[in-house]
């Protein structure tokens, strides 16, 4: 019988803005949320301390989240106004971060992929990310699983 161990970690307080330029609703306008990120980690073998991951060892993940989502403007890589956002960034009006897709679903997938690389490297493959939930507010979230 294979034993799997799971732990979770939540990071909160990432105020950022984005827009869904393809939307035919009010979501096409620039709007913002304070995003939250909820991670699920797994392993087959715990550390000598008995942990799946050392939460104190997730500083690289936290730094990544801070850089991309703390007081930033998220634009899709294919946004037709990307040059406008780049100009505003150059003028110091916004802190532009270009993502493949800044939706909650797109963010969940992208953050999952990036964080999983970090966790696998930090633990030498002993632990990995199995799920990321990105919450835009108390009512809405998106989840990406391995």
Element layout with pairings:
Elements: E1 5-18, E2 31-43, H1 59-69, E3 72-76, H2 82-90, E4 96-99, H3 104-122, E5 127-135, E6 141-145
Parallel strand pairs: 1-3, 3-4
Antiparallel strand pairs: 1-2, 2-5, 5-6
Helix pairs in contact: 1-3
Q: Mind explaining what this structure looks like?
A:
The protein has 146 residues and is α/β, with parallel strands linked by helices. The chain has one domain (5-145): Tetrahydropterin Synthase, Chain A. Helices cover 27% and strands 34% of the residues. The chain is built from 3 helices and 6 strands; from the N terminus they run E-E-H-E-H-E-H-E-E. It has a 6-stranded mixed β-sheet, sandwiched between helices. Helix 2 (82-90) links the parallel strand 3 and strand 4. The chain is elongated, with a radius of gyration of 17 Å. The two termini are 22 Å apart. The mean pLDDT is 96.
């Amino acid at each position: 019988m294979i034993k799997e161990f799971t732990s979770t970690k939540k990071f909160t307080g990432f105020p950022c803005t984005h827009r869904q330029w393809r939307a035919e609703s009010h979501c096409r306008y620039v709007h913002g949320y304070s995003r939250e990120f909820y991670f699920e980690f797994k392993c087959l073998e715990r550390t000598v301390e008995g942990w799946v991951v050392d939460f104190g060892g997730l500083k690289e993940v936290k730094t990544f989240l801070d850089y991309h989502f703390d007081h930033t403007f998220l634009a899709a890589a294919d946004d037709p106004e990307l040059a406008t956002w780049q100009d505003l960034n150059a003028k110091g009006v916004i802190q532009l971060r270009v993502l493949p897709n800044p939706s909650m679903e797109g963010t969940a997938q992208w953050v999952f992929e990036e964080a999983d690389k970090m966790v696998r490297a930090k633990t030498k493959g002993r632990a990995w990310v199995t799920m990321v939930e990105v919450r835009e507010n108390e009512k809405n979230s998106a989840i990406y699983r391995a």
